[in-house]
Amino acid sequence: MLTAHNLSKAFGLTPILKNCTFSVNAGDRVGLIGPNGCGKTTLLRLLTGEELPNSGHIALTPANLRVGYLAQGFNPDPTLTLGQLLHQTVGDPAQLETDLAHLATKLAAEPERKELQIAYDETLTRLNRSDIGQFQTILAGLGLDAIPDSQRIATFSGGQKTRLALALVLLSDPQLLLLDEPTNHLDIKMLEWLENWLRGFSGGVLIVSHDRTFLDRTVTRILDLNPQTQTIREYAGNYSDYLAQYLNERDKQMAAYKDQVYEVRRMKQDIARAKAQAADTERRVKSVSLGGIKEGKDHYLRLAKKVARKGKSREKKLDRYLESDERVEKPKPSWQMKLDFDEAAHLGRDVLTLEGLTVGYAGHPPLLCDISLHVQAGQRIVLTGPNGAGKSTLLRTIVGLLPPLSGQFRLGGSVRLGYMAQEQELLDPTSTALETIRQNAPMNETEARSFLHYFLFSDDDPLRPIAHLSYGERARLSLARLVAEGCNFLLLDEPINHLDIPSRSRFEQALTQFEGTVLAVVHDRYFIEQFATDLWQVAEKQLKTQILRRGL
To answer: Beta strands of 183-335 (E only): which ranges?
Structure first.
């Protein structure tokens, strides 16, 4: 269906992709992984024709293959209603039938015109995919069937927009799917629906995702885009299979590298001994010369030259070894965020108390009702549930951005609260990363730059306006801000949505070492399994609690 051969792409003097070759066939489920900024989205844009490669080529079979592309950042006309947007995507069935009849008449009169045949086939395809039943099945699966056709897109939440973008792609009846982070903002129910839908899809799929559980359940092949070499390496199996192979290769490479270090050290010691022997021989020559014994002097001169040649030979042998193809490079650390929380300020036993708390927006039905719960020091609570059920609203209420509709909550006296918003709206788009950190911590410019380096802001990155940062960069900056503030109770609203897999893993490790308390809205099932001590699930405007483990 799709073949990419020796694709290369650079922006200015910066290479992004080098000689990347792979294929996606009918029935294939391929995962494309790699750190943020390594070129995954650029590669998808090359495949769709939105960008042109510097070299290499892309072939679709057949040439008119229907490609469905889910891009990051869905921004339709906000003045449109849901019904209008759907009709724009798949067309009005009545109008399509009229157009098809008109084309059939013209084609009967001029059957040799290829453009008429192409137009007839395309119109027939659009008519076939305008089936209302198919509409409803996909909309219902993504939880959009309850939204009236008259509702304007401007009123949709971020999660609803993501699901709508996905629905529009699926409704276009694609034969090949290119999905760029389709799991962002999807709750667990929606994720499972999408996994089931993809299992029944007969075409090919190429998925960019950082959701490890989603990749495990959907893909059968992994393409790993290496940012250091700008090349693609293919691995058989799902994400867990890839990780096992990758770590095994790294272990072997590290073992070979350690053997090489030992051998180089041994060769250098031999060279040092030879040089020491040569120096000792030269001293003997000088001693004999002073004594006037010509035969002894000649003997030691010959010996000195022999030892010097031996040392030079060994140096050349070492140089050849280090420059040869046999040389093993030290495995470079995976691109991952270095996130080290300072030791949290001491927390008392009581961190948060909710007493009959009801949250929502004034003038609208409440989202969560009569919540009475207690949060204690050291708990790692994951809050999960359907999109739009009130999870973010609860966090915003605790932070103080929204007033409770009724009831109350109380924070412990020693709590230092840190809040990471879902869309990073707490970041000033006109400010820079450097200014943000210095506003939240007593650091000079050098200290702030060094601190930001731990979060992979290097060179001129700290000086760029936040409005120009990518989603992943903004997420890293939001986390850096919390660290700089020295929080001991973190409220995290989908903190890993825009982080790549290495960054998610490092983030989980850091939170495991964090001695404070965490309440996080998360839909990543891998994260929940590895991190949470307690699970709060939204169901029918209530919170059902479950203890997952008794401390770690």
So the answer is: 204-208, 221-226, 231-236
The torsion of the CA quartet 375, 379, 384, 390, rounded to 10 degrees, works out to: 30
**Are 69 and 205 contacting, i.e. CB atoms less than 8 angstroms apart?**
no
- CATH class name, domain 350-547: alpha beta
Alpha helices in 324-470 (DSSP H): 391-399, 433-440, 445-453
| From 55-69, 114-128, 294-308, 536-550, the region with the lowest mean pLDDT | 294-308
More confident residue, 298 or 221: 221
**Per residue in 181-216, pLDDT tens?**
888 777 788 888 889 888 888 899 999 988 888 999
Question: For residue 408, which phi and psi values (nearest 5 degrees)?
Answer: -155, 165
Contacts 24+ apart (CB under 8 A), 9-12: 9/39, 9/42, 9/43, 9/46, 9/51, 9/53, 9/54, 10/54
Domain 2-91+130-228 has CATH 3.10.20.310: no
Q: DSSP 3-state assignment of 126?
A: helix
Give the domain ranges of the chain.
Answer: 2-91+130-228, 260-323, 350-547
162 neighbors 76 (Cβ within 8 angstroms): no
Q: How far apart are CA 116 and CA 65, in angstroms?
A: 18
pTM above 0.90, yes or no: no
